[in-house]
Amino acid sequence: MTCSWKKLARRVATLIKFRRSSSDPPANKTSLPAPTASLNSTLQDAKAAAADDTKLALDATVEKAPGPHFSLHDLENFAKQELEDIAQVVDELKNAKNHTVREMTKYAEHVVNGVGHVIQYVEVFAGLHPAAEAVVGAVKKVVGLEKQRHENDAHIAVIHTYMINTVFHLNVLGSISHDQLSHVESHMQSVCHNFKTTINEFGMFVDVYHNQWQKIYKFLFAEHHREKLEHFRVTFSNYRGDLDRLSVMVNGKQLSTVSSNVTRTLSHLDEVLNKSGDIFKLVDKFDSRLEGIEEWIMAHGGASGVIQSDQYLEELGIKLNERITDNMKVVLRTEFDQILQGHEQVSHVI
Fold it and tell me: How far apart are alpha carbons 149 and 144 in whole angstroms?
């Protein structure tokens, strides 16, 4: 590794000198603890965290400046609080049938906008390795794009939570010295490279999903959407385990990187995702014209049968009050993976 540790220490000191702007309050619905007035104890915390002089002092002493600042310990607590908040929000999605579409959208917006401290926190650890830094950069880009959406989607938010929970586990790097990290360099490079690739793929999928906003795509591509969501769920979960194993490889022990409340709450995500079909059905659920659409599709050969028939597509378009264009027919008859690949080639959003 060619990383300058002194330079990195200065960079980390700047990162943890996080100031909460009065114009940019935390997105959490739960009040966060007040910031510490002084950081005199941070050097002592850093010494306790560092096993030798090659390990970065993550809680470095920062320059004095007006306004409140956070120690790394505070930032970690804020990040965990955000994880608990968004996990509880996503957990509520399993009660989708009890909420309106507007309420579900608000839940999704909370998940997307409520991770600022998590990203601030992992940026500190990402600075320990260029590959980890690239992962956090990819996450920030995807989160930034989601914040720009006019509306956020509930089942996308479920996978978003998996992604954020996994990137939080980059804090395992704080337990590994410079020398130890060099011994697991190959593993670290592989995990972070694959993680970044999947984040980019997820970003592309979400972009395609939002671009294909018409109801006919939501109904006829529903199975493809569910398969992709499951793929991202499993893959992000696997990366989380890979990051945790880094500590086992160098220290011989597993670290607890999330609080028991977070672990317990996130355990509901599998159940939520298994009901993602219910979330799909929430689209315009009060529109009586959409009643029986899925049953009609199944009675006419399923999604593939309807897609291949001009007559059925026209009939479905009438039921959905949507005009089916020749271009839409071409898109519907294209393999979904090819659609994603084609979008990646012409899009520069990720």
Answer: 9
CB 130 within 8 A of CB 3: yes
> Is pLDDT of 23 > 50?
no
**C-alpha to C-alpha distances, 121 to 126, 234, 313, nearest whole angstrom:** 9, 24, 49
| CA 114 centroid distance within chain | 11
Q: Above 80 in pLDDT, residue 348?
A: no
What is the four-CA torsion angle of 160, 112, 216, 345, rounded to 10 degrees?
-70
| 205 dihedral zone (left: phi>0; alpha: psi -120 to 50; beta) | alpha
Q: What tokens were used for 269?
A: 């995500």
CA gap 28, 24 in Å, rounded: 12
Cβ-in-10-Å burial (0-12, 13-18, 19+) of 269 comes to buried
pTM above 0.85, yes or no: no
| Model pLDDT for residues 254-276, shown as the tens digit of each residue | 555 554 544 554 555 555 555 54
Q: What is the pLDDT of residue 255?
A: 53
Instruction: Name which of 185, 142, 158 is nearest 3 in CA terms.
Output: 185
Q: Which residues contact 121 (CB under 8 A, 6 or more apart)?
A: 72, 75, 76, 78, 79, 168, 171
Strand, coil or helix: 149: coil
